[in-house]
Amino acid sequence: MNARRGIPARAGTAKRDPGMSLLWESLRSQPLRMLTGLMLIGVNRAAFLVLPGSLGLMVDRVLVKHQSSAMPSILAAVAGATALQTLTGLMLDLLLGYSCQNAIASMRTRVQAHIMDLPTSFFDHQLSGVLAARVMKDSEKLRDFIGPVALESVAAIVTGGLAFGGMIFLSVKLTLPLVVLLAVLAGVMRWAAGDVRARYAEIAHLQSIMAGRLSESIAGVRVVKAYAAEPREAIVFASQSQVLEDATVQVQMHQARSTAGASLAFSLIGLLLLYAGTLQVLAGALTVGRLVTYCAFLACATQAARQVGGLRMQFASSLASLDRIASILRESPEDAGKRHPEVPPVTGVVRVHGVSFAYTPAQTVLHDISFTATPGTLTALVGSSGSGKSTLCALLCAFYRPTSGSVLIDDVNLASRSLGDFRDQLGVVFQDPFLFSGSIRENVLIARPSATEAELMECYELVRLDRFVDRLPDRYETLVGERGVRLSGGERQRICMARALLRDPRLLLLDEPTSSLDEESEHYFRETLGHLIPRRTAIVIAHRLSTIRRADQILVLDSGRIVERGDHLTLMALRGHYFRLFQSQPGAHDPAV
Ligand SMILES: Nc1ncnc2c1ncn2[C@@H]1O[C@H](COP(=O)(O)OP(=O)(O)OP(=O)(O)O)[C@@H](O)[C@H]1O
Fold this sequence. Notes:
Blueprint: H1 16-28, H2 31-48, H3 50-64, H4 70-117, H5 120-123, H6 128-170, H7 172-193, H8 196-219, H9 221-226, H10 230-282, H11 288-329, E1 350-360, E2 363-373, E3 378-383, H12 389-396, E4 404-409, E5 412-413, H13 419-423, E6 426-429, H14 440-445, H15 453-462, H16 466-469, H17 489-502, E7 507-511, H18 519-532, E8 537-541, H19 545-549, E9 553-558, E10 561-566, H20 568-574, H21 577-583
Helix pairs in contact: 1-11, 2-4, 2-6, 3-4, 3-11, 4-6, 6-7, 6-8, 6-11, 7-10, 8-10, 8-11, 10-11, 15-17, 20-21
Bound molecules: adenosine-5'-triphosphate.
């Protein structure tokens, strides 16, 4: 880690295979277009070489032998070839424009869908901005690949190959030494270029780190402003920008040096060949016209070789991006390898057997947790902050797999169950009431897009959404802003509860669902919960006495262990952890409570 700059010092060396195979997959998915493209390139390049190829004929037949009758047919051939070149060029541009967009769109869709299928633990180690940059920017690199890189490389290789074939046809003696010289030159250039792909991988990594940091500081702009941290954010961003600039300039300088070196080498080779060719003409082994054509082909071949050399850099940059996409696609989805046994719909019997769990090997967060929760009952999880309540909830949602032990739903282990089927029966309200940037209605409908208007209204009613929605000009169509920023904490919480209830779930997991509600709303919600429980299993993390007291079983967690269990009266009688927790609650000494 580069501590001064706040950026990892090195992005890691990119491997060659993943990016290449991803590119190959993408090209293979459009076989007809690729084949048509290759044919068009072949025709286009052959037409391009008609002009240099006919120069020799013009010199030998028209200028040297004065056969002016040959001129119209030579000119007609050149004009026809030029027309063909223009037409195939246009067709290539149209074909590639479409193919590029198609490849980019399907790559983005594939990466986005894959990311959504990854387990929650994957996201614990990623910045959302970095992932977003990968989906959008790295996929975009396919355009460079299929467009300038692949097309121009193939075109340059075809041009070089055809020109080279022409040169061999005209003079084997001149061309054979050239092959040796070019092979040596290619080896030297390759050695001098070093691992360009790793450098581009580092640049792309730095760019996504910056994008991640930027989106984080924009999302947390209130905290930044509240703590007057704007200058600090500016310094971090500027230093990251400086590291990126240094890395980019280094690659560009390297590229400029390679291009200049290659240019010089090609010019020297051209000079040598001109000298050797002139000697051949003087010795009568070659006509002037053939030497002219040879030199024209040589110019085309050198130009093509230079072009391929230049594109190698772009190729490396695009491959580095594809490597990064491939690294995401290599991550296993959370349902991978499951047998998906045919299971009947969930009824909601939860059995947790000896579950231990650690986010990192260094720290076990839950130790040997066991309990059963059945439909029609309310289980409350209580305990001090950091005791593992939300983690247990996350295991019940199958966001993580236990390190040991098992979570069974209707006696089927969650580790082998299809998570899609299971989560269809799950209603969750998280500690952080997250809303998407759409309308209130859209946020609730996420739970069940096919819900009828009457079902929606029933859920709104259950959590008393109408109470604040009536004050909003667009009522349920009001846009809530990013993460629901335009609403209060309690309002967000109510929308999240409506969302969970719309699911009509068998298993209801509520992580401090009423922490931001006022007394009256909380009372109303408690009554609602009372009506809901007979048809489902409810597990609630709650600090409020009112919710805890009526639970069928209360599990008291301390440092990741269940230290007490029972109903309110049993636990109070123990005068242990629960008793102390209860005593510390506001209202505990109120005789009414
Ligand atoms: N994604 C994570 N990666 C690593 N450690 C985590 C992660 N989430 C939570 N922890 C750690 O696990 C422990 C239990 O956290 P958890 O959120 O389950 O506690 P909690 O009882 O719900 O606390 P609170 O009442 O404050 O919400 C804490 O020490 C916390 O730092």
